[in-house]
UniProtKB/TrEMBL annotation:
Necessary cofactors: Fe(2+); Ni(2+)
GO terms assigned for molecular function: acireductone dioxygenase (Ni2+-requiring) activity; acireductone dioxygenase [iron(II)-requiring] activity; iron ion binding; nickel cation binding
Function: Catalyzes 2 different reactions between oxygen and the acireductone 1,2-dihydroxy-3-keto-5-methylthiopentene (DHK-MTPene) depending upon the metal bound in the active site. Fe-containing acireductone dioxygenase (Fe-ARD) produces formate and 2-keto-4-methylthiobutyrate (KMTB), the alpha-ketoacid precursor of methionine in the methionine recycle pathway. Ni-containing acireductone dioxygenase (Ni-ARD) produces methylthiopropionate, carbon monoxide and formate, and does not lie on the methionine recycle pathway.
Annotated organism of origin: Paraglomus brasilianum
Source domain of life: Eukaryota
Compartmental location: Cytoplasm; Nucleus
Record keywords: Amino-acid biosynthesis, Cytoplasm, Dioxygenase, Iron, Metal-binding, Methionine biosynthesis, Nickel, Nucleus, Oxidoreductase
Gene: ADI1
Designated name of the protein: Acireductone dioxygenase
Residues binding Fe(2+): H88, H90, E94, H133
Region (Disordered): 1-22
Lineage: Eukaryota, Fungi, Fungi incertae sedis, Mucoromycota, Glomeromycotina
GO biological process, one term: L-methionine salvage from methylthioadenosine
Length: 179
Protein backbone atom coordinates (compact mmCIF):
# COMPACT_ATOMS: atom_id res chain seq x y z
CA UNK A 1 0.00 0.00 0.00
CA UNK A 2 1.21 3.44 -0.87
CA UNK A 3 -0.96 6.47 -0.19
CA UNK A 4 -0.31 10.02 -1.36
CA UNK A 5 -1.99 13.19 -2.49
CA UNK A 6 -3.30 13.07 -6.04
CA UNK A 7 -2.20 15.80 -8.44
CA UNK A 8 -5.81 16.70 -9.20
CA UNK A 9 -5.29 16.38 -12.96
CA UNK A 10 -8.43 14.88 -14.40
CA UNK A 11 -7.46 15.33 -18.04
CA UNK A 12 -4.56 12.84 -18.18
CA UNK A 13 -5.11 9.05 -18.15
CA UNK A 14 -6.69 7.97 -14.85
CA UNK A 15 -4.45 4.87 -14.83
CA UNK A 16 -1.28 6.94 -14.41
CA UNK A 17 0.05 7.42 -10.83
CA UNK A 18 -1.02 11.11 -10.61
CA UNK A 19 1.42 11.89 -7.82
CA UNK A 20 1.26 15.45 -6.53
CA UNK A 21 4.52 17.40 -6.99
CA UNK A 22 6.38 17.46 -4.64
CA UNK A 23 5.42 13.94 -3.62
CA UNK A 24 3.14 14.15 -0.60
CA UNK A 25 2.74 10.86 1.26
CA UNK A 26 -0.27 10.04 3.42
CA UNK A 27 0.32 7.81 6.46
CA UNK A 28 -1.91 4.99 7.67
CA UNK A 29 -2.65 7.22 10.72
CA UNK A 30 -3.99 9.97 8.47
CA UNK A 31 -6.07 7.40 6.61
CA UNK A 32 -7.31 6.19 9.99
CA UNK A 33 -8.56 9.68 10.79
CA UNK A 34 -10.71 9.46 7.66
CA UNK A 35 -12.04 6.12 8.86
CA UNK A 36 -10.01 4.21 6.27
CA UNK A 37 -8.49 1.01 7.67
CA UNK A 38 -5.58 -0.94 6.28
CA UNK A 39 -3.95 -4.30 6.97
CA UNK A 40 -1.11 -6.09 5.26
CA UNK A 41 -1.71 -9.82 4.93
CA UNK A 42 1.06 -11.50 2.97
CA UNK A 43 -0.09 -14.07 0.44
CA UNK A 44 1.58 -16.90 2.33
CA UNK A 45 0.07 -20.23 3.26
CA UNK A 46 -1.92 -18.79 6.15
CA UNK A 47 -3.42 -15.76 4.37
CA UNK A 48 -6.94 -17.20 4.35
CA UNK A 49 -6.83 -17.85 8.10
CA UNK A 50 -5.75 -14.26 8.66
CA UNK A 51 -8.56 -12.96 6.46
CA UNK A 52 -10.97 -15.19 8.36
CA UNK A 53 -9.75 -13.73 11.65
CA UNK A 54 -10.32 -10.14 10.49
CA UNK A 55 -13.67 -11.17 9.02
CA UNK A 56 -14.75 -12.75 12.29
CA UNK A 57 -13.53 -9.82 14.34
CA UNK A 58 -15.43 -7.32 12.19
CA UNK A 59 -18.48 -9.49 11.43
CA UNK A 60 -17.85 -9.87 7.71
CA UNK A 61 -19.99 -12.89 7.07
CA UNK A 62 -20.01 -12.98 3.29
CA UNK A 63 -17.50 -12.66 0.48
CA UNK A 64 -16.91 -13.12 -3.20
CA UNK A 65 -14.09 -12.63 -5.69
CA UNK A 66 -14.02 -10.09 -8.51
CA UNK A 67 -11.59 -10.09 -11.38
CA UNK A 68 -11.27 -6.82 -13.25
CA UNK A 69 -9.69 -7.26 -16.66
CA UNK A 70 -10.77 -7.16 -20.28
CA UNK A 71 -10.54 -10.95 -20.50
CA UNK A 72 -12.60 -11.56 -17.38
CA UNK A 73 -15.27 -8.93 -18.02
CA UNK A 74 -15.62 -8.83 -21.78
CA UNK A 75 -18.46 -6.59 -22.93
CA UNK A 76 -19.07 -4.88 -19.60
CA UNK A 77 -15.40 -4.04 -18.95
CA UNK A 78 -15.44 -0.43 -20.14
CA UNK A 79 -18.78 0.42 -18.55
CA UNK A 80 -17.80 -1.16 -15.22
CA UNK A 81 -14.56 0.79 -15.15
CA UNK A 82 -16.47 3.97 -15.84
CA UNK A 83 -18.86 3.24 -12.97
CA UNK A 84 -16.01 2.41 -10.57
CA UNK A 85 -14.33 5.74 -11.37
CA UNK A 86 -17.36 7.92 -10.80
CA UNK A 87 -17.17 9.57 -7.42
CA UNK A 88 -19.62 7.82 -5.12
CA UNK A 89 -20.36 6.51 -1.65
CA UNK A 90 -21.95 3.37 -0.23
CA UNK A 91 -24.25 2.80 2.70
CA UNK A 92 -21.93 0.07 3.93
CA UNK A 93 -18.19 -0.49 4.20
CA UNK A 94 -16.27 -1.30 1.02
CA UNK A 95 -13.79 -4.04 1.93
CA UNK A 96 -11.21 -5.34 -0.51
CA UNK A 97 -8.39 -7.84 -0.14
CA UNK A 98 -6.13 -7.83 -3.18
CA UNK A 99 -5.47 -11.38 -4.38
CA UNK A 100 -3.55 -10.45 -7.51
CA UNK A 101 -2.67 -7.43 -9.61
CA UNK A 102 -2.97 -3.81 -8.52
CA UNK A 103 -5.11 -0.70 -8.68
CA UNK A 104 -5.95 2.67 -7.13
CA UNK A 105 -8.65 3.62 -4.67
CA UNK A 106 -9.05 7.39 -4.38
CA UNK A 107 -10.70 8.82 -1.28
CA UNK A 108 -11.55 12.41 -0.37
CA UNK A 109 -9.77 13.97 2.61
CA UNK A 110 -11.22 16.59 5.02
CA UNK A 111 -10.36 19.37 2.55
CA UNK A 112 -12.01 17.50 -0.30
CA UNK A 113 -8.68 16.69 -1.95
CA UNK A 114 -8.08 13.28 -3.46
CA UNK A 115 -5.82 10.83 -1.66
CA UNK A 116 -4.68 8.02 -3.93
CA UNK A 117 -4.23 4.60 -2.32
CA UNK A 118 -2.17 2.26 -4.48
CA UNK A 119 -2.94 -1.36 -3.63
CA UNK A 120 -1.10 -4.52 -4.58
CA UNK A 121 -1.37 -8.21 -3.75
CA UNK A 122 -1.69 -8.74 0.01
CA UNK A 123 -3.31 -5.39 0.84
CA UNK A 124 -6.60 -5.27 2.73
CA UNK A 125 -8.46 -1.98 2.66
CA UNK A 126 -11.69 -0.94 4.36
CA UNK A 127 -13.46 2.22 3.27
CA UNK A 128 -16.10 3.41 5.72
CA UNK A 129 -19.73 3.85 4.73
CA UNK A 130 -20.37 7.39 3.54
CA UNK A 131 -16.86 8.30 2.32
CA UNK A 132 -16.65 9.69 -1.21
CA UNK A 133 -14.31 7.52 -3.28
CA UNK A 134 -13.61 5.99 -6.69
CA UNK A 135 -11.55 3.13 -8.14
CA UNK A 136 -9.36 2.75 -11.19
CA UNK A 137 -7.07 0.11 -12.56
CA UNK A 138 -3.46 1.20 -13.01
CA UNK A 139 -1.48 0.69 -16.20
CA UNK A 140 -1.20 -3.06 -15.52
CA UNK A 141 -4.93 -3.26 -16.30
CA UNK A 142 -5.55 -6.14 -13.94
CA UNK A 143 -6.77 -6.71 -10.41
CA UNK A 144 -8.36 -9.61 -8.61
CA UNK A 145 -9.90 -8.88 -5.23
CA UNK A 146 -11.89 -10.57 -2.53
CA UNK A 147 -14.88 -8.44 -1.58
CA UNK A 148 -16.07 -8.93 1.96
CA UNK A 149 -19.33 -7.73 3.42
CA UNK A 150 -21.35 -7.97 6.58
CA UNK A 151 -24.59 -9.38 5.22
CA UNK A 152 -25.97 -9.19 1.75
CA UNK A 153 -23.91 -7.21 -0.71
CA UNK A 154 -24.92 -3.56 -0.80
CA UNK A 155 -22.84 -2.49 -3.74
CA UNK A 156 -25.13 0.21 -5.02
CA UNK A 157 -22.94 3.22 -5.68
CA UNK A 158 -24.57 6.50 -4.78
CA UNK A 159 -22.95 9.13 -6.92
CA UNK A 160 -21.91 12.50 -5.62
CA UNK A 161 -23.69 14.73 -4.70
CA UNK A 162 -25.21 12.71 -1.86
CA UNK A 163 -24.59 15.26 0.88
CA UNK A 164 -27.83 14.71 2.74
CA UNK A 165 -27.64 10.91 2.64
CA UNK A 166 -27.88 9.71 6.27
CA UNK A 167 -24.76 7.55 5.87
CA UNK A 168 -22.88 10.57 4.54
CA UNK A 169 -24.02 12.65 7.50
CA UNK A 170 -23.05 10.04 10.08
CA UNK A 171 -19.70 9.53 8.35
CA UNK A 172 -18.97 13.27 8.62
CA UNK A 173 -19.97 13.23 12.24
CA UNK A 174 -17.72 10.25 13.02
CA UNK A 175 -14.76 11.93 11.33
CA UNK A 176 -15.31 15.13 13.32
CA UNK A 177 -15.58 13.36 16.65
CA UNK A 178 -12.39 11.33 16.12
CA UNK A 179 -10.23 14.42 15.40
C1 LIG B 1 -15.44 -1.12 -6.57
O1 LIG B 1 -16.44 -1.23 -5.87
O2 LIG B 1 -15.01 -0.03 -6.96
C2 LIG B 1 -14.74 -2.30 -6.95
O3 LIG B 1 -15.17 -3.35 -6.56
C3 LIG B 1 -13.56 -2.17 -7.80
C4 LIG B 1 -12.91 -3.45 -8.06
S1 LIG B 1 -12.28 -4.25 -6.63
C5 LIG B 1 -10.61 -3.84 -6.58
NI1 LIG C 1 -17.32 2.05 -4.14
Amino acid sequence: MRAYHHDGDNTADQRLPHEYTPFSPVTPEELGRLGVLYWRIEKRDDWLEQINAVAQERSYRNRDVIKVSKEAMGDVYESKLKTFYEEHLHEDEEIRYILDGSGYFDVRDEQDRWIRIALTTGDLLVLPAGIYHRFTLDSNNYIEAMRLFKDEPKWTPINRPADSNPFRLSYLQSVRTTV
